[in-house]
Write a structure and sequence with these properties.
heterodimer, A: 5-stranded parallel sheet, two-stranded antiparallel ribbon, 16 helices, 7 strands, globular, B: 18 helices, 72% helix
């Protein structure tokens, strides 16, 4: 139906074009101003029309947001923010049960989508906070060395994808441009290229380019094509046990990750994210890492938690936990859990949250 | 570099700014020539040398024609055109020619190894060789003076708005403009912006949407049912018009921004009531080029009906082959040749009729419908990968052969409505009675608003212009 609608809209636009009066521009500057004014007015009209029709960019976040923000129950909300590590490794129901064992039940919501960089998470977190019927009481942030290592990598990683365009609003573009000016070790051409890419994606976002093709009504589950998951890696029990032992012994980060953990930009980004949440009445925060068989990820989480003093920080490397995850079938790949493993880890995490006093 | 892309927008902005900030005509021409070579080099820098070679050939021929006399002038003309055609033939037709020779020999029982070179077809070669030929022939005929400045010839042949897919601009039309300093005019800029917007709407919004209907079906003809094939055929009928007319509009508009006037390339061709009229409205720069540089030298209308039909068939067969080195293009050209001959013979019979024949008003509608059905039939051959596939499509649509398979959304009525709206409103030139102030506000505010609407309605994945492959 999108094809038909766009075809008819195309006919209408072509028809209107032919009806435009032919006039000489008396003053070119004035004509240019008129063009810009017409463009801006039309964009406002489009924004209003899309909002009225309930159209949102296609993709996984809006479907998830609709589901999460619709909660209006009595239990306080615990919100987890992360990427595919949390998406695969956290079972919200299991966490709710584990927290309920403390005597205070919670509604656990997982705002985590595969491949989601911090900018995208912040963008949808803001939207969540605006729309949520119940604001979260506790917010848990995922720790992941790959995502935390460099802001520009994230801008580059998804450049010109539908998701990147959907999240690149003025605020995110401003953040990305600030990071670009602060970044070290970049040549001028690289800065110019990245800067122009950021601005181009901002332009794509604000001018609704291709929006009718890439949007869906918010209540309707949009067909999201993530290009398919890679095939799972097959580990034997011995391999899994050995990799976990090696990861536990690892101390080094990946060579291209910054040595200071958390990095300067990550600290300021977290401060901004927490300030945003505090403005919406959220008072409690904690950090967690999902178990990994990559030593660098574990080493990063360890260093991160060592540096965080004002909030609880839980690294998923407890020997007892790892003993339960040493089966090859527990691992989708080096960093993602599968099968019964997410429940095992989530219950362990719930217990730690209760033990450390983060909950209740 | 696609006209509908960020890269082109940035390129155009930079070249436009530099062009109008230069005061001297010579500097501007050098700038536009260098920019055009950069534009071409983005695709493949190696072929810039080929374009330079064609330019040098045309320039040298122009110099020699000015000095040569008598039959030497004809020799210079023939050698120069021969070099252009050999260049075009090698890059475009070498593999096609050899594979057909080998197939013919194989039919005769002679096994022949084929030294197929898999030559890359340089983008726009069909257009810039025709520009070069146009210059040499126009100098030979005395329609344009020999050009002493190499940069003027280089700019004429390489000027980026028309470099990749035309329009084919005659040397006699554009050289006087290139020789003069172009002055900045608000009216010219306004026309340029309007044409760019029109091209954008045609290409990015309508043609690219129609591509989404036509392409999947033509990619797997055997998997779709007859109704789906009809829908795809109508979709392609619309797509190729909006795609090529859109490209031409953007090319003409871009040239206007630099102060150059190109001739129109399309004039609502799906209103045509005969194939002859169709070619006066479709890709006019090519059809007039073929008329003046091929059809008329062949003898044109001088002679009996059979002789004229022979000239028409040769012209259209070569016109078909010009589009691509494949038999389906030749069949496409042949179908148009047959249509032109039929129209010629019909008019001849009409003129010679001893009894005046009254024309019913419905007849003009029937003539448009018949002509467009013929044009649509020809487009099937143009679009399909082979003549055999085209026959399969036509047979399925006509119900000659059952063709079960997948359906598609039946939007053929909607596509025809889009074409009808464009052709009716476009050729009607409706004038709203508004005060000059409101007319100005509506005209320029409307440009911005329609651009915004077009951006929202365009499919995100842009397809290259169809004529880029020729």
């Amino acid at each position: 139906m999108t094809t038909l609608a766009c075809l008819l809209l195309g006919a209408a636009i072509a028809g209107l074009y032919h009806l435009l009066p032919y006039t000489r521009p008396g003053r070119p500057f004035r004509a240019a101003l008129m063009v810009i004014a017409g463009f801006i007015l039309a964009q406002w009209g489009l924004s209003a029309a899309f909002a009225g029709l309930g159209l949102v960019p296609k993709g996984p976040f809006h479907d998830l947001l609709y589901k999460l923000t619709d909660y209006d129950g009595e239990r306080p909300v615990v919100l987890l923010i992360g990427s595919s590590f949390s998406e695969a490794g956290i079972d919200p129901d299991a966490l709710a049960e584990a927290l309920a064992d403390s005597g205070r039940a919670a509604a656990v919501q997982r705002l985590a989508i595969g491949g989601s960089p911090h900018l995208e998470r912040l963008h949808y977190l803001k939207e969540y906070l605006v729309r949520a019927k119940r604001k979260p009481q506790l917010v848990l942030f995922e720790i992941a060395g790959g995502y935390d290592s460099g802001p520009l990598y994230q801008v580059h990683q998804m450049r010109f994808s539908d998701r990147m365009v959907a999240m690149m609003d003025g605020s995110n573009a401003w953040s990305a441009l600030r990071w670009l000016t602060d970044a070290e070790g970049l040549s001028l051409p690289q800065r110019l290229q990245l800067g122009s890419e950021i601005l181009a994606q901002l332009a794509l976002h604000v001018s609704h380019i291709g929006f009718l093709w890439n949007s869906a009504p918010v209540r309707q589950a949009a067909a999201y094509d993530d290009g398919g998951s890679p095939p799972p890696t097959r580990f034997s029990d011995e391999e899994a046990a050995e990799l976990l032992a090696r990861a536990a012994a690892a101390r080094d980060l990946k060579p291209d990750w910054p040595p200071d953990v958390p990095s300067r930009w990550m600290s300021s980004f977290l401060a901004e994210e927490i300030a945003t949440l505090q403005r919406h009445g959220v008072g409690q925060f904690a950090f967690y890492s999902v178990p990994s068989m990559q030593g660098a990820n574990v080493a990063y989480a360890r260093r991160f938690c060592a540096a965080i003093t004002n909030f609880a920080c839980i690294v998923g490397e407890d020997p007892e936990l790892l003993a339960d995850l040493r089966h090859g079938a527990d691992w989708y790949d080096f960093d993602h859990l599968q099968g019964a493993a997410p429940e095992v880890f989530t219950r362990w995490l719930g217990d730690r949250l209760v033990e450390t006093g983060v909950w209740p | 570099m696609n006209f509908v892309s960020f890269e082109f927008a940035a390129f155009l902005a930079v070249v436009y700014g530099l062009h109008w900030s230069c005061r001297h005509a010579g500097t501007r021409k050098w700038l536009l020539t260098i920019a055009s070579y950069v534009f071409y080099a983005v695709w493949n820098w190696r072929f810039c040398f080929l374009m330079l070679f064609v330019t040098v050939n045309a320039f040298a021929a122009g110099q020699m024609l000015a000095r040569a006399t008598g039959r030497w002038r004809t020799v210079v003309l023939a050698v120069s055109i021969g070099i252009d055609l050999a260049t075009l033939g090698f890059f475009k037709y070498y593999d096609f020619f050899l594979s057909n020779v080998a197939a013919a020999l194989a039919d005769m029982g002679i096994a022949a190894s084929r030294p197929v070179l898999r030559i890359i077809l340089p983008v726009g070669i069909s257009f810039y060789t025709f520009h070069a030929i146009s210059y040499v022939v126009d100098v030979y005929r005395g329609k344009v003076e020999r050009e002493p400045s190499f940069v003027n010839i280089a700019l004429y042949i390489s000027f980026f708005p028309q470099l990749i897919a035309g329009p084919i601009v005659r040397a006699s039309f554009i050289m006087p403009q290139i020789r003069q300093l172009r002055s900045f005019s608000g009216a010219q800029q306004a026309i340029g912006v309007r044409l760019l917007l029109r091209g954008f709407i045609y290409k990015a919004v309508i043609a690219d949407t129609l591509t989404l209907i036509a392409d999947p079906v033509f990619a797997h003809v055997d998997q779709y049912n007859a109704h789906a094939l009809l829908t795809a055929t109508i979709a392609f009928y619309g797509q190729i018009y909006f795609d090529f007319a859109g490209y031409s509009s953007m090319a003409i508009g871009t040239a206007r921004l630099f102060g150059y006037r190109f001739p129109p390339n399309f004039n609502y061709p799906y209103r045509a009531a005969s194939v002859t009229e169709f070619w006066r409205r479709w890709h006019m720069s090519l059809s007039f080029w073929l008329r003046d540089y091929l059809y008329i030298p062949l003898g044109g209308n001088r002679g009996g009906s059979l002789f004229v039909c022979r000239n028409l068939m040769i012209t259209m067969l070569l016109g078909g082959l010009w589009h691509g080195a494949a038999w389906n293009y030749v069949v496409w050209g042949a179908l148009h040749g047959v249509g032109l001959c039929a129209n010629k013979l019909w008019r001849e019979a009409w003129r010679r009729s001893p009894v005046p024949i009254g024309v019913h008003s419905n007849w003009s509608v029937a003539a448009v419908v018949l002509t467009q059905l013929w044009v649509m039939l020809a487009w099937v051959f143009f679009r399909c990968d082979s003549a055999a596939q085209a026959i399969e499509v036509v047979a399925a649509i006509l119900g000659v052969r059952p063709h079960p398979g997948l359906p598609v959304l039946p939007v053929e009525g909607c596509i025809l409505a889009v074409i009808a709206i464009d052709h009716t409103l476009g050729s009607a030139r409706v004038k709203l009675s508004l005060s000059p102030r409101w007319a100005g506000a509506l005209a320029w505010g409307g440009v911005g608003a329609l651009f915004a609407l077009g951006l929202a309605a365009m499919p995100v994945v842009q397809k290259p212009f169809i004529y880029f492959q020729f």
